[in-house]
Structure to design on (129 residues):
C-alpha cells in the first residue's frame, strides 16, 4: 500500500504499445536507450516501474501510480515523452527515429493480480529485446 497526502492506494497498470508499423526496431542499443528513457520519465513523474520489457516490436510496462494519474495520461507520457527524448538525443546520430502507433493497451492489476501480470511480463524474456 502506498500513500499520498490525501490517499492510500495500490494502483498498478499494465501498458503495452507498439512502434509505428510494428517494425522490429527495438533491439540492441535502441532497446537499451528506450529503457533508460522510460525510467527517466517514471522518475520525473513520480511513477514506479514495477517491471519493464522492451521487445523488438512492442513495449510492456507495468507501473504503480498515484490515483491522480489516469491510465490514458500514463500512456501518453511514456509514449510521447519517450519518442521526443529518443529522437532529440539519437535521431541525428543514428538517423533512425522512433515513433509509436496511436493506440495502446492498458489493464489494471490490484494487489492479487499484479503478481500474475509480473509473471506474464517475465515470460517475455529480455533476451528477445
Amino acid at each position: 500500500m502506498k500513500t499520498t497526502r490525501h490517499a492510500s492506494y495500490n494502483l498498478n497498470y499494465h501498458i503495452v504499445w507498439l512502434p509505428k508499423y510494428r517494425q522490429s526496431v527495438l533491439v540492441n542499443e535502441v532497446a537499451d536507450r528506450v529503457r533508460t528513457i522510460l525510467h527517466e520519465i517514471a522518475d520525473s513523474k513520480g511513477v514506479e516501474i514495477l517491471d519493464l520489457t522492451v521487445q523488438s516490436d512492442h513495449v510492456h510496462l507495468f507501473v504503480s501510480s498515484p490515483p491522480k494519474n489516469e491510465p490514458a495520461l500514463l500512456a501518453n507520457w511514456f509514449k510521447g515523452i519517450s519518442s521526443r527524448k529518443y529522437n532529440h538525443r539519437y535521431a541525428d546520430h543514428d538517423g533512425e527515429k522512433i515513433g509509436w502507433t496511436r493506440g495502446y493497451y492498458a489493464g489494471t492489476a490490484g494487489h492479487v493480480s499484479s503478481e500474475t501480470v509480473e509473471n506474464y511480463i517475465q515470460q517475455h524474456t529480455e533476451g528477445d529485446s
